[in-house]
Amino acid sequence: MVGVEHINAPLVVDIDAHTLTEYVPAKPLESNLEVVFGSAEQGSLRARFEPCAQLNCGNTLKFPFARGAYKPTAVTIKDAQVLVAADAATETKRVVELTLDTAALGQWDYAPGDTVAILPSNAPQIVAQLLQRLNLSEQADSVCHLSLALNCAKKSAKVPGHIPATATPRELLTHCLSLHAVPQKQFLSALASCTSDSKERSFLASLSSKQGAAHYQTLILERGLCLLDLLELCTTCQPTLALLVEHLPRLLPRPYSIANSPLECSQQLRIIYSIRANKAGVTTSMLEAKRELHREKQQSVQLYIYPREPNAFRYTDQEFSGNQILIAVGTGLAPFLGFLAHKQLHKELATGQTWLYVGAKMPQAMVKQQQLLAWQKASILQSLRLCYSRHSTGEQPKYVQQLLEQDAQQLVELMQQPTTVLYVCADGAKITKCIEDGLRRCLQLGLKLDEMEATQWLKEMRAKGKYREDIWL
Ligand SMILES: Cc1cc2nc3c(=O)[nH]c(=O)nc-3n(C[C@H](O)[C@H](O)[C@H](O)COP(=O)(O)OP(=O)(O)OC[C@H]3O[C@@H](n4cnc5c(N)ncnc54)[C@H](O)[C@@H]3O)c2cc1C
Is residue 230 helix, strand or coil? Predict the structure, then answer.
C-alpha cells in the first residue's frame, strides 16, 4: 500500500506500542450498503457515461461554489512549464505553470483573483493496490451499483449522493472517494472488524476507543496516517468496497487561482501550483502525472475544471482608480500576476499606485521575478519589495512582515487613503497571521496606536472591504 507517508520511505509504526490493554472500541456504524455487480445491460447503458464518475451522479450532486450553471468540463493542457525547480536542501517546492485551453467551457467572464476548481483523481497505482487488497482485481472494471442492504433497519439510510447509479470499483475508488481523508473513530472500529490478525485488530480497535485518544492524536491527527497507511500496517485488514463507500468522504474539487488577465489570452487560462516532494497531495500529484504525460506528448491531456463563484478578492474596473497593496508568499503570488497583467492592459484607466511585497525561500524560488522587475520598470508597480527566508544577506529582512515594518511609515500613509485596498494571499493560516501581526505593528509605529487600537483599525479595514485575504488551507 502506498499511503500518506508515500513512496519516499517505508512506514514505520510500532503497533504494539500504540495498543492499549484496556479500552472500549468505538461503536461501528451499522453496515447499510452492499455492492451488487450488474448485468450486461447495465454495462451497455454506460457507453455515454463521463469518464469522471462523479459526473454521472445526476443534477442533485452539487459541486462546491460552482459559478452559475457551470458544470465540471474537460479542458486540455496547452502548455506546462516548471517555473521553480525543487530543491531538497532549502525545502523549495517545484512550482509549475499550466496553460489550459478553456474553449470547452464556452464564453466566460472572469476577473483576476477569480478561481477555478479542479476535480482530482486518486493515482492509478494506489487504486490498483487497494483493489487488490479488497480482492476486487478481477472485478475492477465490472459494472456495479451500491444499494441498501436487505437487512438495513435505519430509515434514513441512503446511498451517498457522490456515488453514481452505476460505476466500476476502479471508477469509485479513482474519482469518488477521498482515500487520504482523516479516518474517523467509527471507521477504525469498522476496519478492526475486517482484520483477522488479533494484534492488528486490537491496534485498530484501541485507536478507535476513547481511551486511545492520545495515540489517535499522534498517529492520525499529527502524523496524518490515512486508510492506505493503516492497510500497510495491518496486512490482514481486508475491508469491503461497501464499507469504504460508507465511511470515506467524497473526493472534493480543489480551488486554484487564475494567474492571468482575461484580456491576455482568449479561451485560455493559467494556473500555478506547487508540489510537495514529500507527502504530495492528491490533486497536485494528479497534475504532475498529467504534466509528465503532456511532456511526453503521448496524447491530448485533459483536466476537469469549473469556474467558481467570485468573491471580493478580485481586481475589476472598480479597483482601477484605487491603490493596491499586494502581499504574497510563495505561490500566493499567482492571483497577483493576473492583477498586474490586467493593470498593464488597462494602463490609461488604472491610475492608482500598486505596491507588491513577496516572500520566497530563495531568489531562484521567486516566481516570475523577471516579469515583476519588468512591471516595476514599466511603472505598473510603484514599489516592489522581495525577500528570501533561506538566503541570508546580512541585514536583509527574511520575511514579508519584516519588509512591511521597514516601510511602516509610507505604508500606513497609503493604507489611510480612501481608495487603497490591501490584498493578502498565502498558503496557510500561520503565514497570514504573521502578515496580520506585521500590519498591526506598522499601524502601531505609523499612527502611534497601542495594540488594541491597531487591531480595531484592521478590523474596520476588513469590514469596509479594504483588507481582503485569500487563504489557501
Ligand atoms: C481560494 C483558494 C485558491 C487557491 N489557489 C491555489 C493556487 O493558485 N495554487 C496552488 O498551488 N494552490 C492553491 N490553493 C490550494 C489548493 O486548492 C490545494 O489545497 C493544494 O494544491 C493542495 O491540494 P492537493 O489535493 O494536492 O493536496 P491534499 O491531498 O488536499 O493534501 C492534504 C494537505 O497537504 C498539504 N499540502 C499538499 N500539497 C501542498 C502544497 N503544495 N503546499 C502546501 N501544502 C500542501 C495541505 O495542507 C493539504 O491540505 C488554493 C486554495 C484556495 C482555498
Answer: helix
